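Why does residue order matter? Because the sequence determines the fold. Keep that principle in mind as you read this record.
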Amino acid sequence: MIIRPRSLLLGLLVILYLQSCAVGQHVNAPEECCFTFYPRRIPVAVISKFEETRAECPKPGLIFTTVKGARVCADPDSMWVQKALNKIKRQIVESST
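Structure:
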């Protein structure tokens, strides 16, 4: 069986193209999404910061970071999350004035 250089080159180019397509599909994927939410309340005193998940995530969520560094996903539609968020925002405003 004789392998021609052109065939080998064409085969390598096809493999490289397919690999770049597979890698390129996840370029804009969010780094962190919430797929499940923590079921219990977290005391506001132990929350050091919060961040919203990106719009590309399948469902919206809030990520609370505790004083000890644990990151917990919470449902933004939950009443306790909204109350905690309001308290944290008030504390930020009060500490900046």
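Strands lie at 47-52, 62-66, 71-74.
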